C-alpha cells in the first residue's frame, strides 16, 4: 500500500472568524476595563463632591452656627452683667462680665476660622461700640442714667441686628449646603446604579462571547462530528469562528477526507483481494485434481514399467525409475502440504470452544505408527479449553510432535506437551523433546516456508511443517517461538499461545 500524501492545510477563516478566543476575551476585557475605569472615575468624583458637601455642613456650617450662638450668649451675658452691676455695684457681676468678654473673643476666633467675612466684622464693631459707650464705663463705676440706658438700648440693638444677620446668613448657607448634599447623594446613587448596570452589561457581553464564540461553535462542531460518527462520512466539517475551532474543524475534516479516501481504496483492495482469493481457490482446486493426476500416472506407469520390463533393465535403469517414482511422490506430498498451507483460515476454519486435549489425541492417533516404530514416549499434561478449529489444531500438534519424533538423537524420543497461563492471560503451550536440538541462530528461520536445516536424505520432508504451524497459531490469534533457554542438555522446546474459551 502506498503512503498517503499529506492533505493541504485547511483554509484560514475570514472576517470575525480570524480572531482567536483569546482575542475575543481580550477585546471584551479591554472594553469592560475602560468602561469600568470611566464609571469608577465618575463615581469617585461624585463621592468626592458628596464628601465636600457633607464636610461643609458638618465641619463648617454647623460649628459656625454653634459659635454664633455662643457669641450671642456671651454678648447677652456682658449686657446683663453690666446692667446688674450698675444697679447693685456687686463685684461678682464684674467677674461675670470679664468671663463673658473672654467667651466672646473665643467665639469670634472660632467664627473667623470657619466663616470669616463682613458680617462677623459688623458684629465685632457693634460690640466694640457698645462696650466703649456703655459696658466699660458702667463696669468702671459710671452710674446708670436715663441717658446711658438709651445708649445701651441703641448700641446693643445694633449688636442684635448684626448677630441676626449672621444667623440668617448661616441659615441660608445651611439650606444651600443641605440641598447640595442631597443633590450629591442622589448623584452618587445614580453613579452606583450606572456602575452596576455597566457590570451587568459587561457580564452580558462576556456571556454573549462565550455563547456565540465558544459554546455555539463547539455545539455545531459536536453535531457535525456526531453526524460523521453515525455514518454520514460525506458530511463536511465547517466552523467559521473562533480561529482555534475553525483550525481544529479543518484538521478533523482533513482526517475525515483522508479516512474516506483510504476507505474507498480499502474497498477497492478488498474487492481485488476477493477476486484474488477466488483465483487462489480455483488454483487450489486445479492443483488438487489436475496437477496430482499426471503425477499419479507418472508414478503408476513408471512402477508398471519396472514390474513388466524389470528383468530387461540393468541396475542403472532401475535406479532411474526409482528416482522418477520418488520425485513424483515427493511432488504429490509437496502439493498436499501447499494445499494445507493455503487452506488455513479460508476453508473449514471455523473456530469454536473445545478441549485442547481432543486435537492432541487426534494427533497422537495419526502418529501412532511412527511413535511405535521409534519407541517414542509422548506424554501430555492437563490441557485447557480453547477457542479454535479442531482439525487445524490437530495438524499443529501432529506437526510439532512429529518433528520431535523425527529429529531424534540416539536415545528413544521423549516428548512432553503442557499448558499454562501467561502474563497476558493467554494459554501458553509447550512441546519439549530430547532430540538433536536447534541452534539459536536458526530460531526465526525454521518458521519460514521451504526452510530446511538438514538434507532430505537424512531427514525427509518438504520444509512446510513449521511454517504451517506458525500460520495456524497466528490465525487463532497467538504467536509461536523457539525456546532453547530452559532445561539442560540437548533437545528443543517450541512454545505457542492460544486464546482461552472466554478470551476475546
Automatic annotation (TrEMBL):
Classification via InterPro entries: CHASE3, HAMP_dom, HATPase_C_sf, HATPase_dom, His_kinase_dom, HisK_dim/P_dom, HisK_dim/P_sf, Sensor_kinase/Photoreceptor
Localization, UniProt: Cell membrane
PROSITE patterns xref list: HAMP, HIS_KIN
Keyword Kinase: yes
E.C. no: 2.7.13.3
Major localization class: membrane
Catalytic reaction(s) noted: ATP + protein L-histidine = ADP + protein N-phospho-L-histidine
Domain Histidine kinase: 286-502
Family matches, as Pfam families: CHASE3, HAMP, HATPase_c, HisKA
Transmembrane domains' residue ranges: 24-47, 190-210
Designated name of the protein: histidine kinase
Taxonomic lineage from the root: Bacteria, Bacillati, Actinomycetota, Actinomycetes, Streptosporangiales
